[in-house]
Each structure stands twice: as C-alpha cells, then as structure tokens.
Amino acid sequence: MISRPIPQKNRLRRTMMFMNAQKPGLMKDAYIYGADSIILDLEDAVAENQKDAARFSLYHALKNIDYGDTEVIVRINGLDTPHWQEDIRCVVAGGADGIRIAKCESADDVRQIEAHVLAAEKEFGVEVGRTLLMAALESPRGIMNAYEIVTASERMFGCAISGGDFRKSMHVQIEKGGIEMLAARGQMLLAARAAGVQCFDTMYPNIDDMEGFQEEVIQNRKMGFDGKSIVSPKQIRFVHETFAPTKKEIAYAEKLVRSFDEQADSGVGVYTVDGKMVDIPFFEDARRVIALAKACGVYEGDL
Hints:
Radius of gyration: 20 Å
Distance between the termini: 40 Å
Largest sheet: 8 strands, parallel, barrel
Number of helices: 12
Number of strands: 10
Order of helices and strands: EHEHEHEHEHHEHHEHEHHEEH
C-alpha cells in the first residue's frame, strides 16, 4: 500500500487537472503529465448509476498508485445528493490529500463536510486534520458568501470558481475576454486574499481553442489567481510558464531584497529603486516572487 506525505496547505498549485474517477486507466497514469494537482472526479464525470463503481476504483487507485509529488484531490458529490457521505469515507480511507466541495454555498456546508471528514479520519485511523478542503463556488450565493466559506475551517486551503454552473445561474454565455465572470472572479479573489488562502480559476471548456485558452490564462495571472483548473495535459505547459515569474520579475525582486537589506542597516524605510519609491510591502512581495520562482524551479540566484 502507498503511503503519501502530509499534505501542505500552501504548496504550488498552478494546475489542477480533472480526471474521471470511474476510469482506472486515466487514474493510473495521471501523475505522468506533470500537473501540480489532479482532481479525481466523483461528481459530474460519473453517471448516477455508476457512483459505487467509481468509488471502488478510486479507493484502489489511492491505495496502490504512487502519485509522487503530484497532489491528489477528489471532487465529491454535492450535499444535495445521497452520495457525498460515502464519497468522504472513500476519500479519507484511501488517503487522498484533500476534498473539493462541489457547489459550496455557505460556511455551514463546509462545517458539515468537515464533521464527516473528522469522523472518517477517526474511523479509518487517519491522522486527524490530514485531509484538506477546498471549496468550488458555482452560484451567486456561493460567490457572495466566499469569505465566510474560506474561513469556515482550518483545513481550507483555497477556493475555485466553476464557470459552467455559474454562467447558467447568471443566464449568460461565454464571452471573449470573460466579461460575464469578471465581477465574480474579482469578489472571490478578494475573499481568498483576505482569508490568506489560494484561489483558482475555472477550466476553459474548448480544448481545441488554444488561443482563447492562453488569453484566459494570461488574464488569470494578471488578476492574481494562484492557478487554473484544466481538463487536458496539453494545457499544462502554458499554465506553468505563465504562472512562473519572468526573468525580469525575478531580477527586480532580487534588487529589491538586496536594497532593502542595505537600507535597513541605515534605518531607512522608504527609498527608491530604479526610480520607483518602495517600502516594506514591496520587499515582502519581492520575497514572495523569489519563493514562487524557487517553487517553479526557475530561480538561479543565491538569495
């Protein structure tokens, strides 16, 4: 049986790739593509009369496949279905790193899931607190309650918007530039940053439209997302490259860190670098850029 390392709330999650938990062949090789996280799906990808079979396949995959450094998250069925409690028992018993709560709309939803996760951890002898949580926000109510949702549990590491269901609830279609979801994306990002958790954008539905996909990924990064849900291995490389700091960003961050260390010795708190005024918040962001570059494997400096 495979023993997985303790999940980390703040690990690198540029890509979260969905895989059908009903298909052993997909789950067996999911780690080879290089996504930071995979989401084994028990919800929409599995037909109603195949839920038990999917849980069976999922449990044995979790127990017997070495996913290496790839994080394994399971999307469980919603609280409005008869499946979610058995989903949780399967996920916890199998040793997955975390649970994606589908159609999450309130802090009470999170607390209800958390209570069953805790019970399952005790039932199966899993270290209490090991199973992380993330919330999928798929409705106006979920977006409006985003901050309460992401602060409802110490297990919560992040939230993601689900574009398909959200667009349906808003009576809109996909638009070039994503204007139909900008307000929701922005509100979710604000809630995540206020709570100190990660935030992920929805998957891009047209796998063959790489130009549209790339435009959306670039917009995601500019807005401040930590990563993106994806559905195809061919989307991974572009997301990883886009969310990694550029050489120019890294060089400027290094300059900020070194200048701050020099100025701190002389008691100066506000000064200029390359003609721009900087202070402590700039230094903290520079440290974040360098840490991200290291996590992405693109840092070659010595800080």
